[in-house]
Write a structure and sequence with these properties.
With 356 residues, the chain is α/β, with parallel strands linked by helices. It is built from 16 helices and six strands. The chain has a four-stranded mixed sheet, sandwiched between helices. Strands 1-6 form a two-stranded antiparallel sheet. A hairpin with a 4-residue loop joins β2 and β3. The structure holds 2-acetamido-2-deoxy-beta-D-glucopyranose (NAG) (3 copies). One 2-acetamido-2-deoxy-beta-D-glucopyranose (NAG) binds next to α14.
Length: 356
């Protein structure tokens, strides 16, 4: 009896410390969408091959079921990952959705996939879902850098020098071999929330120095898609939505080159119906999905990461409503028509509150 009380007291103490810690961490991460560049939100840190972090994992596992914090991890059941893959397979077979779920495994797709030969891992990059952190993990695992802290920020996306080869750099036979035998994963999030994040990150704030988004791409979109000609403000979300939902958007896409990776569909980026991925992570449950992916890839003893700041990955309907407020129903329907494949393949609910 006495021991049970003691255990309970320890649990509460741990929860309390956890709350204090998470408060502190949230302060450093005010903008949930801005983490992809400067703010290091996942802080994956590599630990030496030997040992890992003994004791820590079982401890966390024991703690999880008793967590009652509103911000606490949702605890995704392992079956969920199987169900996601099954849904993906089923939707891939739907004839009516064929154009929206299938693509050619082109050089564009192979350019999106990064290779870690040492641990036989392929990672397809889907911007705006914390990919920078995963790339850093793979760079460390590839041996180019001793730890994530040692990776200069400007090198992460410098694919000439970061020691992280793209799948497209291999011969056809080598590509096939890797696609067949390696562990393959990518991360998705609600498709519309991702577009909002891309819009904010590239056209509103742009924390990296990338002037071409505001000075080349935005004017191109405005020229073709601005409805109100007397409006002189910079690109509005409405313009962006009209461009994305235009069935002939490809004409502009070609001019924009690789920059479109921030807003084309997951289907176009990763070919999820053509490549049989091992795991599809969801940004909304990254607290569970990240460790699951590390475990399944067999690298959890090599890399570890601290708790993800609470609330940062959660879907925010208020934000979505806010951004779509000034956008016409017709334009939103056209946008959904293009992104329906992404919604259906990955189990995201159709946003009826925007469409009806
Ligand atoms: C799919 O695309 C092809 C050509 O791109 C087109 O001919 C066909 O009508 C489309 N099918 C559907 C169901 O939209
Ligand atoms: C067009 O934009 C101008 C300038 O922002 C604004 O005053 C006007 O009300 C807009 N017209 C319509 C029809 O929205
Ligand atoms: C959701 O977004 C709105 C508007 O951007 C913001 O005010 C609010 O704090 C966000 N809610 C959460 C839980 O992050």
């Amino acid at each position: 009896m006495h021991q049970q009380w003691l255990l309970l007291a320890i649990c509460f103490w741990v929860l309390f410390m956890f709350m204090v810690a998470s408060k502190f961490i949230t302060l450093t991460f005010k903008d949930p969408d801005a983490y992809s560049t400067r703010q290091e939100f996942l802080f994956l840190t590599a630990v030496p091959d030997s040992g890992g972090l003994p004791g820590q994992k079982p401890f966390l596992k024991d703690l999880k079921p008793t967590e009652k914090l509103p911000s606490a991890s949702v605890l995704v059941h392992p079956l969920v990952y199987m169900e996601r893959l099954e849904l993906l397979r089923n939707v891939c077979r739907e004839e009516a959705l064929r154009n929206l779920s299938h693509t050619v495994v082109s050089k564009f797709v192979l350019d999106r996939i990064f290779v870690c030969d040492k641990h036989k891992i392929l990672f397809c990059q889907t911007p705006k879902v914390g990919n920078t952190q995963w790339k850093k993990v793979l760079m460390v695992l590839n041996g180019a850098f001793p730890s994530i802290e040692d990776i200069p920020e400007n090198l992460v996306h410098d694919h000439e020098r970061n020691g992280l080869p793209r799948l497209s750099s291999f011969s056809r036979a080598e590509v096939q071999k890797r696609l067949k035998t390696y562990f393959k994963f990518f991360i998705v999030r609600d498709p519309f929330e991702r577009l909002i994040s891309a819009f904010k990150d590239k056209f509103v704030h742009n924390p990296r120095f990338e002037p071409w988004y505001r000075h080349l791409i935005a004017p191109g979109i405005i020229r073709k898609y601005r409805r109100n000609r007397t409006e002189t403000r910079g690109i509005q979300f409405e313009d962006f939505v009209r461009y994305l939902g235009d069935p002939s958007h490809r004409r502009l896409d070609l001019q924009f080159g690789e920059h479109i990776i921030h807003w084309v569909t997951y289907v176009e980026l990763c070919a999820p119906c053509e490549i049989t991925y091992s795991v599809v992570g969801h940004h909304e449950t990254l607290e569970d999905d990240a460790p699951y992916i590390l475990r399944e890839a067999g690298i959890d003893h090599l890399v570890s990461y601290p708790a993800i700041p609470p609330g940062i990955t959660a879907y925010n309907r208020t934000k979505v409503e806010h951004y779509f407020l000034g956008v016409s129903k017709r334009d939103i329907r056209r946008l959904y028509a293009r992104f329906e494949g992404d919604f259906r393949l990955f189990g995201y609910q159709k946003p009826d509150f925007l469409l009806d």
